[in-house]
Automatic annotation (TrEMBL):
Domain spans labelled Mannosylglycerate hydrolase MGH1-like glycoside hydrolase: 44-430
Family affiliation: Belongs to the glycosyl hydrolase 63 family.
GO biological process: oligosaccharide metabolic process; protein N-linked glycosylation
Protein name according to UniProt: Mannosylglycerate hydrolase MGH1-like glycoside hydrolase domain-containing protein
Length: 443
């Protein structure tokens, strides 16, 4: 199927909620391929794992059935070991359109059991959260199509993979073995761990991201070389977590908080299907205790990643440390809200949540994950603020997000100070979470 052309961004910022909703709808329709939604037509021409989860949350307000298809297509690419790969490659897209592409990953011959051309690493487990929200949008259609019956075993196997293969630190938490797995690829939190990795030679790969985005917005060549080296080492060990050297291995608070929230969602799904909800609720409780006991720093009132090579916290204040607000019953929620309101993040001042400490030594308002505000992360923090009763901060953040989405043509991310658009435009998860926020305002 020939992809539809990308929808142009709005000529002027939408002036009303109805206009903003129509503009966001155009983005998602324009990025639909017939089986799934690409993040953007130029920079990201395939299906990305956690993008599809956020996209489904927005699509449920337009077409619950299409939102179900989004998650069904993503989970259908699951490997035999249970992992959900971070990219599912579109066979209709030229093989060299994105790097690293299918010829780099060579997943078809992987011993872990890929059933399609995909990458070999994973992304944060948002999928069960999205599946439950999609079901709730239209339970009748969901039940008639057997949506939850179809995706529940896949999602349970996905979580089982993380528990079985990725507890590399022994605390019960899931570890990321590549910065891309955290979703926050270029975060300053990974700098020290990446410094231990020798970059792949610059002439051994050709970057495609710089064809679509300014150099100042993207990771440096040296860091990109380290990403390639880590991915190649994992590939060359057959994506076997027990055999691979994992020069980069960290426990990320955002990844694990999302896993906890996803276990709560699986409990709701299991209850809907007449299954064992208590097993998932119990798993969520165990993970919450491990998250707080292992990654929370009471003095800093912040969650930090843990470097499993050194065993130490990575004391960099990033948005990942605020995402645990999405965890129900989080015992340190009040302190985390205070940190979010403080000078490092400045929530409540009419801006998106910066991806990195505004007062930090590595803050860069333009460069990928080193300062810019991202709509999906702000949506997660907004969800957590609502959950823990910080209504004033949540309302300010919702207003900032919807205004910035319309003003920037649904940018991938924005300068957290000026609000200037950065990265790609007509970005799918930006449009999707905007639709979700608008639906919440109307409720």
């Amino acid at each position: 199927m020939t992809p539809a052309p990308a929808a142009p961004g709005p000529a002027a910022a939408p002036g009303t909620a109805a206009e903003l909703r129509r503009a966001a709808t155009r983005v998602l329709l324009g990025n639909w391929t017939g089986r799934s939604t690409v993040p953007s037509r130029g920079l990201y021409p395939h299906q990305w794992s956690w993008d599809s989860a956020f996209i489904a949350v927005g699509l449920r307000h337009l077409s619950p059935r299409r939102a179900q298809w989004e998650l069904e297509s993503m989970t259908a690419a699951q490997w035999a070991d249970g992992r959900l790969p971070h990219i599912v490659f579109d066979p209709a897209t030229p093989r060299g359109a994105y790097f690293p592409g299918p010829d780099f990953w060579r997943s078809a011959g992987a011993g872990a059991g890929a059933n399609a051309e995909t990458s070999g690493i994973v992304q944060p487990p948002v999928h069960a959260i999205a599946a439950w929200e999609v079901h709730r949008a239209d339970p009748e259609t969901s039940r008639r199509r057997g949506f939850l019956e179809r995706v529940y075993p896949r999602l349970a196997a996905w979580h089982h993979y993380l528990a079985r293969e990725r507890d590399l630190g022994g605390a019960g938490l899931a570890a990321a073995v590549h910065p891309w797995e955290s979703g926050m690829d270029n975060s300053p939190a990974w700098d020290a761990a990446l410094a231990r990795v020798a970059p792949a030679p610059a002439d051994s790969f050709a970057r495609r991201d710089l064809d679509h985005a300014p150099v100042a917005d993207r990771p440096t060549d040296a860091d990109y070389g380290r990403y390639v080296r880590l991915a190649a080492d994992y590939r060359d060990h057959g994506y076997d977590d027990a055999r691979a050297p994992h020069a980069f291995r960290v426990e990320d608070p955002s990844m694990n908080a999302l896993l906890i929230a996803a276990e709560h969602a699986l409990a709701a799904i299991a209850a809907e299907l007449g299954g064992d909800a208590a097993a998932h609720s119990g798993r969520a409780a165990v993970l919450t205790k491990a998250l707080v006991g292992t990654l929370y720093d009471p003095g800093a009132r912040m969650f930090f990643a843990r470097d499993l090579v050194t065993g130490a916290h990575i004391a960099e204040h990033t948005v990942a440390g605020l995402v645990p607000l999405i965890v129900p019953g989080l015992p340190v929620a009040a302190d985390l809200v205070a940190t979010a309101r403080g000078p490092r993040f400045g929530i409540g001042q009419g801006r998106l949540v910066p991806s990195y400490d505004r007062t930090g030594h590595a803050f860069d308002p333009c460069r990928y994950w080193r300062g810019p505000g991202w709509f999906n992360m702000s949506w997660l923090v907004h969800r957590g603020l609502v959950l823990h009763g910080a209504a004033d901060l949540a309302a300010d953040l919702r207003t900032a997000m919807t205004a910035a989405a319309g003003r920037t043509g649904f940018a991938e991310y924005v300068d957290p100070h000026s609000g200037q658009a950065r990265g790609a435009r007509a970005f799918s998860w930006t449009a999707a979470v905007t639709l979700d926020l608008l639906a919440g305002e109307a409720a």
